[in-house]
Amino acid sequence: MALAFDEYGRPFIIIKEQEQKSRLRGLDAQKANISAGRAVARILRTSLGPKGMDKMLQSPDGDVTITNDGATILEQMDVDNQIAKLMVELSRSQDYEIGDGTTGVVVMAGALLEQAEKLLERGIHPIRIAEGYETASRIAVEHLEKIAQKFEYGVSNFEPLVQTCMTTLSSKIVNRCKRSLAEIAVKAVLAVADLERKDVNLDLIKVEGKVGGKLEDTELVYGIVVDKDMSHPQMPKKIEDAKIAILTCPFEPPKPKTKHKVDIDTVEKFQTLRKQEQQYFDDMVQKCKDAGATLVICQWGFDDEANHLLLHRNLPAVRWVGGVELELIAIATGGRIVPRFQELTPEKLGKAGLVREKSFGTTKDRMLYIEHCANSRAVTIFIRGGTLFNFVMSGICMLKETLHFFSEMFTDTEEPLLAIINSFLPGVGMIATASISIGNKMMIEETKRSIHDALCVARNLIRNNSIVYGGGSAEISCSISVEAAADRYPGVEQYAIRAFADALDAIPMALAENSGLQPIETLSAVKSQQVKENNPYCGIDCNDVGTNDMREQNVFETLIGKQQQILLATQVVKMILKIDDVISPSEY
Ligand code: ADP
Fold it and tell me: Can you tell me where the transmembrane regions are (predicted)?
């Protein structure tokens, strides 16, 4: 602190802000940043591959997520360190651009940082390392093009697309049903794809989930599924050739904009008011009828009286439909969203071949299926799930019942057991109910995330139908080619290029380690096999199939996904290496 005076002689105090900040410079800054980045990568390393572990994350308000998806793990981790946040961003950008490979990209960046640390210790300047990495990444990306393969697909021949989506799903919790889920994802993407322009608008695919049933019951609906039911139980459950009025205006009398007061002091006045109100409803229903609507889908609710009138006038209705769903319904049925009853015209109505309400088993849950729409290019993947949890839960419930039975038996004795059981019961009950709802919901959420990955993979393949083989084979092949290229560079970059080749080995090593294999031995065996047989498709046999040729195992990944992983990881590591001064507020 220092005391100074302004031009009028008034004193003021200068506080040196820098003194209140902690500062790391030069090598210390780089090392601190590298260790933060590596710490994040270490967390994800064990999740990589088909035998990767899942992570359980609890949010501050108690919500539990179990997932294997790199982007989701990092998103929910709530990291504080700025460099760690960069790694989170890295995974997010991979998710945004490609949709898959979110764990791999962070593991790759972690390995590059580890190698960079060794080079820094040997006295190589960070800029040299960054340049070397850049060169090496270019070599690797070009090499990927060389080993990539193109495959042909068509609307009827989509097996290769399914196989690639299966590779993505094989490392997820839902891998039990990977074949059927992959088929669903591919069919959904093909239904909305514009094959001529090679483009897919994923917004047209709605992923809806409902707790209950089995994962195997997950289905693809060529239309829209809305988690709503008819506003009155006596309305028809099935409407064929529906003409749908899609409304954002409420079924209620208009509200005056200014304040007003109505004195109702006689029965007549009350009845006039009531009649007036009924007249409003009647008019609204009439306007829908005049336009030719046979179903009304409304963004807002309406009271019992309006509901009754709709039933009476034979106009089925659905209320409280969300804005996003309303938009999708409008796109699918080729209708227009109408904000005022006066604007309803026959050509603004949406058209669907079949609208039906479906109920599920013994539960009261009902969903609305809007199918055979005018614009068939909108589909819904409807996920069911939770049997595993139901199974566990029925076990817990049985335990609870048994305990209850014992407690009844001992009611008239002074058994201390009774006290124990009684204190135990509410706990068991709580766990049972909590787990049923959390467990099933978690399963659905994880399935949604996995389906998202599979959809992205199918979309990427339609954009660019080149694939590389997975199981670490592409990385090993790139590593060999980068290593060989290093000798051509006379400068110190050579070391960085070699380090890059070593970092590429981290992916197959992690895959081997996570599958319970000896990482170094497995890697060296596969690498020498690749060189000896000149076969870039040898990878890690994670599932112990008996062959490590990934062509035979049908383990594919998209070329653009793999290239993006390498490029993004290199960019982030370069950015981290270039930071040589970290100024942060010191902690008190
Ligand atoms: P990411 O989030 O990066 O996609 P995953 O946990 O899905 O991470 O793991 C993907 C890695 O697992 C890829 O390198 C892929 O090649 C590999 N992989 C997937 N299935 C198999 C398999 N059956 N055998 C060997 N490797 C596999």
Answer: none
Whole-number Å distance between alpha carbons of 378 and 532: 50
Q: Would the CB of 511 count as within 6 Å of ligand 1? A: yes
Kindly give the number of the ligand 1 atom that is closest to the alpha carbon of 70: 2
pLDDT tens-digit map of 373-432: 877 678 899 988 765 544 455 555 555 555 555 555 555 544 555 555 555 555 555 555
CATH code for the domain defined by 152-213+381-464: 3.30.260.10
Smallest CA separation from ligand 1 atom 9, residue:
49
The phi and psi torsions of 171 (rounded to 5 degrees) equal -100, 10
Task: Check pocket membership of 101 for ligand 1, CB cut-off 6 A.
Answer: yes
Q: Where are the domain boundaries for CATH 1.10.560.10 in the chain?
A: 21-149+469-585
Spacing, Cα 511 to ligand 1 middle (Å): 8
| pLDDT higher than threshold 90 for residue 81 | no
Residue 402: its pLDDT value, please?
57
Sorting pLDDT into bands at 50, 70 and 90, what band is 453?
confident
In angstroms, rounded to a whole number, what is the distance separating the alpha carbons of residues 56 and 64? 7
Q: Is 471 in the pocket of ligand 1 (CB under 6 A)?
A: yes
User: What's the CATH code, domain 223-375?
Assistant: 3.50.7.10
Domain with CATH 3.30.260.10 in the chain: 152-213+381-464
Most distant CA atoms of the chain, gap in Å: 102
3-state helix, strand, coil in the chain (%, to 5): 55, 15, 30
CATH 3.50.7.10 placement within the chain? 223-375
Catalytic residues, by residue number, are: 69, 102-103, 453
192 ligand 1 Cβ < 6 A: no
Which structure tokens are listed for 174? 């839902």
Q: For 421-449, what is the mean pLDDT?
A: 64
pTM of the model: 0.75
Instruction: Give the position, in ligand 1's atom list, of the atom nearest the Cα of 453.
Output: 4
Atom of ligand 1 nearest to the CA of 507: 14
Judge if the beta carbon of residue 212 lies within 6 A of ligand 1.
no
Residue 522 Cβ contacting ligand 1 at under 6 Å: no
Instruction: Ligand 1 pocket test: pick from 87, 507, 511, 543 the residue with the most ligand atoms within 8 Å of its Cβ.
Output: 511
* Top CATH class, 21-149+469-585: mainly alpha
- Of 48, 107, 178, 456, best ligand 1 pocket probe by most atoms within 8 Å of the beta carbon: 48
